[in-house]
Design a protein that fits this description.
single chain; alpha/beta; eight-stranded mixed β-sheet; 15 helices; 25 strands; disordered N terminus
Length: 619
């Protein structure tokens, strides 16, 4: 309770500190949230991304930024959209266990949730709101502001997922990959007419070659997601912004750029090779593509006379790493698979290795619970373990740089056996265990990283972080991050989700009438702070179910309080039998905790064997 009151007090103090600035100018402000998915902070220069570099250098440069762990898109989108940590939003990764069979997800209990129909289905199951917290677009809509969300399918709709276009009242304009199809959010007649007038189609074009991930023998894409994102940028610049200007009231526009994420995931520059990995020409083209979209939006604001009254916040959901598929300890890597190079980890290696270690049958929840034996692996990597796949003892939700493990029966003995098996694998670097299961040597509790709160969806029993390190890519270590990843993608392609500083260090910057100009901030900030600051700028107040909230980034606002930050290191109470301990590098601002990197020292980038010699994060 005390922690909650401290959070609310800090928000209140910030409101007081910023009141002077807003009282001087009663002009209603607009807000654009621009999310360049998967943009690493240190890849932005005036040459690689001039529009983003200009926002950073002329506005506020948040040098000490943090994605929330697990560092995945839907998880961090939930934080940006609500201001709450994942323990409250329940969006623990991109694939979660829902404890019921989701039809739109392909009749599985472990849905991949970057899908509008799946989100609608999960909403319905969890009393109409799986997030269990109000989003800033909903709050803005309720206050009468114009609202829109445009971009990548999944996180875009999540910003106003409870809006129902068929009901009376104000609605958000939503464009994503599904627009114009059966799963897309319906467009109003007003929007359709404006599209036609602007010469734009009523349906989003496909990604084309950018969606090609390749396979073990075929490289992935070598082109950015240009055509699809050009459509989204045109919709924003030529349809939505002019419409909002004509309404003559404040607006909020969310623009979620799939690039550079999509191009870094599917890159064809580095098949089965660590170098160049995600630092090749395809990734750089993805960064420039996102930058072009931001440049087009800023140009439209200028031409419409909206620049002086519009705040722009640019923040990536997470950083990025090159994929490694190497392990010397994994039993799964010693089996031959049709679609996996020799000695490489197959997709679903965690589920396969746990089934062997625990001596439990393994079934595929993405293939009608087909039994996995011999040289087969689960189709999507997910696994249900136990004698009865309908009532599993253990569920693995596969995600990438980290995986989620659920124990439906809360079996403490099985938890202990599972943890012991995980500690034996060289690809594991840090384990976080549900508090109610107890404390285990070598681990930290979920609550230590804000993964235990008021979530509506089931809380994972164990979150497994995978090993990461820096390659010899010749750049800053966070740009050279490599991680073991449980994914269909190949060694040399891109992934995120780990507790590497390469994944937690996301690009963040802001510019506009309510932000300082030419200001460099060394104070730690996170994606949960983005949601709280956006609400503050718009004067929004919503009800809260959980208390795991971010803070208003007062240091970035004129006359705002510049708080002090402190560093600390948290670690397992006891080391495991084989001498491992989960270590967590933390920064603090008041009651807020920011997580730099975590895992087993020497197996996580940003967590060197001697933690006492850590440099300041963000430098």
């Amino acid at each position: 309770m005390r922690r909650r009151s401290l959070v609310l007090l800090s928000v209140g103090l910030t409101a007081l500190s910023t009141g002077f600035a807003s009282a001087q100018n009663n002009t209603p402000r607009n807000l654009i949230l621009f999310i360049p998915d998967g943009l690493r902070a240190l890849k932005v220069t005036p040459e690689t991304a001039p529009a983003m570099a200009e926002v950073r250098d002329k506005g506020v440069n948040f040098k000490n930024s943090h994605s929330l762990f697990p560092t995945f898109t839907m998880a961090n989108g939930s934080a940006m959209s609500t201001g709450h940590y994942l323990g409250d939003t329940g969006v623990f990764s991109n694939t979660i266990w829902t404890n019921y069979t989701s039809g739109p997800a392909g009749d599985t209990v472990v849905p991949f949730i970057e899908n509008d129909a799946v989100l609608g289905d999960i909403d319905e199951h969890f009393k109409g709101d799986y997030l269990n917290e109000e989003t800033i677009l909903k709050m803005a809509r309720d206050k009468g502001l114009s609202t829109a969300a445009i971009g990548k399918v999944g996180p875009t709709y999540q910003f106003d997922h409870t809006d129902k276009p068929e009901k009376p009242g104000l609605h958000s304009v939503v464009f994503d990959d599904s627009t114009g199809g059966k799963n897309g959010v319906a467009l109003s007649d007003e929007v359709k007419a404006a599209l036609t007038k602007a010469g734009l189609p009523l349906a989003t074009p496909p990604r084309g070659d950018n969606s090609k991930a390749g396979d073990a023998k075929t490289p992935g894409t070598i082109v950015a997601n240009v055509a699809q994102q050009a459509y989204f940028a045109d919709v924003a610049a030529k349809v939505v912004l002019p419409m909002f200007k004509a309404r003559n009231k404040p607006f909020v526009l969310v623009f979620w750029s799939r690039d550079p994420d999509g191009s870094q995931h599917n890159t064809g520059d580095s098949l089965n090779q660590i170098l160049p990995g995600i630092n090749g020409p395809t990734s750089m083209a993805g960064i420039r593509n996102a930058d072009n979209n931001l440049g087009q939006l800023r140009k439209a604001l200028d031409e419409l006379g909206l620049a002086a009254t519009t705040n722009i916040m640019v923040q990536a959901d997470h950083g990025f790493s090159t994929i490694s598929k190497e392990s010397k300890t994994s039993p799964s890597a010693k089996v031959s698979y049709d679609d996996t190079p020799k000695d490489f980890l197959p997709m679903g290696f965690l589920a396969i290795d746990l089934a062997k270690a625990l001596d439990l049958p393994l079934f595929d929840p993405n293939d009608k619970n087909a039994k996995i034996e011999g040289n087969k692996h689960p189709k999507a990597g997910n696994g249900v373990l136990g004698k009865d796949p309908e009532k599993p003892d253990l569920v693995v939700a596969t995600n990438g740089g980290s995986d989620l493990i659920y124990l439906p029966n809360k079996d403490k003995k099985l938890a202990a056996k599972t943890i012991k098996a995980l500690l034996d694998q060289d690809y594991v670097s840090g384990l976080f265990v549900e508090d109610s299961l107890g404390r285990f040597p070598g681990t930290l509790p979920l609550s230590s990283v804000n993964l235990r709160g008021k979530s509506a969806t089931p809380t994972p029993s164990i979150v497994v972080n995978f090993r990461s390190y820096a390659s010899e890519c010749g750049e800053a270590p966070t740009n050279c991050s490599v991680q073991v990843a449980d994914t269909v993608l190949r060694q040399g392609q891109g992934m995120h989700g780990s507790f590497s500083r390469g994944d937690t260090m996301n690009f963040m910057a802001a510019i506009g009438p309510d932000f300082k100009a030419g200001y460099v901030s060394e104070i730690p900030v996170s994606n949960a702070d983005v949601g709280m600051t956006a609400a503050q700028l718009l004067g929004l107040r919503g009800s809260q179910n959980g208390g795991l909230v971010g803070r208003v980034m007062s240091e970035a606002l004129p006359n705002g309080i510049v708080p002090k930050a402190y560093k600390s290191v948290e670690r397992s109470k006891k080391k495991s039998e084989n001498g491992l301990e989960t270590v967590l590098n933390v920064q603090r601002v008041g009651s807020q905790r920011y997580f730099d990197a975590a895992g087993f020292p020497g197996r996580t980038l940003g967590l060197e064997p001697d933690t006492a010699k850590q440099k300041t994060a963000g430098k």
